[in-house]
Amino acid sequence: MAFDKVKTLRAAERYLELGKIPAAIKEYCKIVESEPDDLTTLNMLGDLYVRVGNPAAAISYFHRIAEHYRDQDFGLKAIAMYKKIDRLTPNNIEIAVNLADLYAKQDLVVEARAHYLLVAEAHSRGGATKEGLEVLSKIADLDPQNTVIRIKLAEGYFREGMNAEAVSSFAEAGHHLLARGAFDDALQAFGRALETDPSDRTCLKGLLAAHGARGTADEAAEVIERAAANNPDDVELLSMLASAQIENEDPARAEQAITALVARESSAYLRFVDVARLYLRSDKLEEAVRVVSRIAEQMLAEREENQLFELVNELLTCDSDNVQALRLLVRAYWWQRDTENLKAALERLAESAEAAGLVQDERYALTQLTRLVSDQAHHVERLKQLGGAEETAGEDLPEIETVTQPVLEEPAPAVKDRAEFEPQTLSTPTGEAEFEWNSMPDMVEPWTKPSSEMEIERGFSFEAVVAEELPASAAQEIAEVNLEEPNAPIDAVGQERNDAIRTQELESVDFYIAQGYMDIALDTLDLLERQFGAHLDIESRRQQLLSPDESAAPPTSVAEVMLEDSGEVEFENEFEMSSPPAPTTVDVAAPQQPAIPIALGIDPGLAEVFEEFRASAESEVDAAGNGDYETHYNLGLAYQEMDLFEEALEEFQTALSLVAAGDGTPRYLQCCNLLGHCFLQKGVPQLAVTWFNKGLNAPGTSEDERQALRFDLGAAYEQVGDLERAIEIFTEVYGINVSYRGVNERLRVLQARAGGSNGKAAPDSKRNQNHPQHVH
Question: What is the pTM of this model?
């Protein structure tokens, strides 16, 4: 037989009317068995069990409802149910925690703090100090700006040996102090944390920021340098040390730190840019040029030529005739294949080298100029005076400064400049001379692995470059064959040599494809096809590059900066901090939260923390602003919906205290109206009359609002038993709108009850039967 819920409800209601509560409970239990999620019936059962003196059963039902509301994120309704449970089991830790968490989620800071304090006190009385501190941490989270509380909590963690939590609390306090501009206090907080964990990244960053703001970055650099010395492979610490030295405007130490950083994280090489500019600000041009030379090749290989041009121009702004800087400019234009600017840069290089008496540099510049523009007689004449054009790059050149590079276990293949593989000629506008792009010497590839040790040049130097992938002799022979007799047949020996060179270059193309340098690979294939003609191997690789399904792998680094052993430096610890003074406790009692004395035997320091938190909670009881109005108002609505009128009255009164009559919003009137209805539902109509009158007398009330309040006021007078006053109010409503909420019938009934002794005739309701009622 199917369960008849309606029949069961009627039976339960009859039993209630007869006062047979146990029998009603049995009927409601049948409904719950059939529909376990019937929240209304669960709530009714809980209330009935309270009436029969079985709070344990009541709590079980209330708990089911509360968990449902909490899981569904109905926070206000969940709070209402947990408060019902809290009344039945005061000081229950689990319920207090749930209430505190829900209050915190609703941004009701004062209420959340009060419940968290109850939990913390209970833990302290039970000797669970660590658990108590965890609860106090939640209280501190409610007010992150209260750094005094946070520091007290950190000290409590220290006393309990919870060092990680203590460091975290000090760091958080330090960052809030830093944001407020309290740099000295922030340094104290960070320093206290670093005494326990000298390598804490968060505290070190905060320390650097605070010292930087105070103009004492050198002190931060000392602290970070000690931490980095103890963790030499920590990239993050090395990066912070580099930032500290740059902030301290110490280019030498900054360069040292970045060198160590790049040795472990090659992608950080661009941080040398800051070092170069720092040298420039210190009027150390030669050092700046050296640093830029150090990274120039990698910047070009990784498509950072625009930034390189910017740097070189900054160098030349300081000294337009600096030969090393002009060499960098020539190298950059050569990389871009910008012939016009390249010729201008070579002119400047030749003139500056002549003025500086640097014969080798001048001879090199003039050699390249005569290849680019052969009709410049003065260049040819000057070159003859210097001994003629250079025949082989790198012959009889000055010694290049080098550093020793350890042998890598798995060295990455060298990434070749696209121009190294292009012995093509570029015709000048006059057609008189041709310039070989691959005749421009390049850097020694830093990733080339020699038999024992590898030496790379520090900085850029044209003269040290020797073509590795395409030997100059082979390139020259190919060029001679193609230039002298473009259409002449090639003998067997020449064909074999061409095949060998093509195979070698195709291997380089395969490497470019693997590393993602698609544009260089395409350029090289085009060059090979022009030199050796079409070939199946060339075409197959071109199709591979042009295929949309091919994905390029990320490029690898083409340079590595060496780490120079700087030795270990010891520093004295000058970072000391005294504990902040204990704040004065404010003796203000929080409403409805009686003070619970601290149990004897608790650690004195922890007791001080508890008192500090209590003082903060008590001092903020009256500090809630208008921002909490909506929360209290909505919580009151939730209580009212669940027939928890006492709690609803409390929330509506709290909300009312946060607003004022005539403030331009309807909030004051809303609270008066709801307070009146709650008192009516509680059976206290006298107080309802008071609140409805307050609403009527409030300034700025609209006529529609006043009409609704009049009707409710008449109903309140009727419930009080003052029928004459009720008839008077309803008559006023009737005079404004005869069909408002059935007021005509209401008046007829009231007048009949009054016996018609006042001689007034009841209004004729028949004339208004077809008029729709106004719903406010």
Answer: 0.49
